[in-house]
Amino acid sequence: MNHNHPRTGPLTIIVLVFPGVRLLDVTGPIEVFASADEFGGRYRVRVVSEDGAAVITSAGTRIGADLAVDDVREPYDVLVVPGGPEWETAIKDDTLLDAVRRLHGMARCTASVCTGAFLLAAAGLLRGRRAVTHWRQSRQLAVRFPSVRVQPDALFVRDGPMMTSAGVSAGIDLSLALVEEHFGAEVARAVAKDMVVFMQRPGGQSQFSVRSQVPYSRQETLRPVLDAVVANPGAPHTLAAMSRRADVSVRHMSRLFDEELGTTPARYVERVRLEAAQVLLETGDDPLPVVARRTGFGSAESLRRAFVRHLRVTPGAFRTSFRTTGTGTVTGTRVDTDTAMANTEQDRQA
């Protein structure tokens, strides 16, 4: 447990809600802390809104509040600031930002979920700090708040008393990390098993967003080249081959990739191949050497190196941890991180 303060009573968690907040950003962390109470944790969760009234979430569901912001007058343990799809409107709400600052001033730790990082940044609480948000908004966070050191591939980040997390489910990862800090790994592990989630997910956000991170090109010359790579990742997509397809010089092709996508042809091809390999691992039973050949990596070792470099997880661990199960006589089962990572040696031997 964190010994920065004595455990004389339950730890208090304040969850700030506001109109348009995302429902799972709120309920995910609350479920983690409530479940922890069943396994040795001691939490008191309070939902706080600006005036103490219920709010309507982005899903149209009403969430009641226990307290108004002004009712919180004593120091407490953790402030959770959720996000919402209308974050661009939220960061212009001076009253909401004042509430974030006030509540932060009494919290030992302040944590955001998903686009809640924008509220912390707009309130001036992330200056010079490392932070993360949902991968779709990572660039926006970096551009709007250049003093924030955005970590685009992390699931959650801690920098001093500030914690930020990625997409909505990463709020659960962050909350489990807090439970472990407060009450130890055994309690956090019990909560993870009870909720049928990973205590620590292997990999980062990029495993969910590879193709979406590639911008759409308006260049008529480049679009067919990009489409050809996606259509057949296993083909020999060398720089020379792509240049011949577009009928341009190698130098011009490299410049187009840099200007349009901010990357090199080789890196683009590898990322597309990586995504194709992920799909095959999730949906099929082909051995790793076959997956490697079909996706253009050539060998299982090259495939393994690409997975570790980009996703920080081996292909075998990825297959075990992230593939879906079919319906029928086989039931969906959770495989814990230890089981997933045990495939590392199999990857090396493939």
TrEMBL record:
Name of the protein this chain belongs to: DJ-1/PfpI family protein
CDD domains: GATase1_AraC_1
InterPro entries referenced in this protein's UniProt entry, alphabetically: Class_I_gatase-like, DJ-1/PfpI, Homeodomain-like_sf, HTH_AraC, HTH_AraC-typ_CS, INH-QAR
Family matches, as Pfam families: DJ-1_PfpI, HTH_18
Species name: Streptomyces prunicolor
Lineage: Bacteria, Bacillati, Actinomycetota, Actinomycetes, Kitasatosporales
Entries under PROSITE patterns matching the protein: HTH_ARAC_FAMILY_1 (PS00041), HTH_ARAC_FAMILY_2 (PS01124)
Region of interest: Disordered: 329-350
Entry keyword set: DNA-binding, Transcription, Transcription regulation
All copies of domain HTH araC/xylS-type, residue ranges: 223-321
Taxonomy, superkingdom: Bacteria
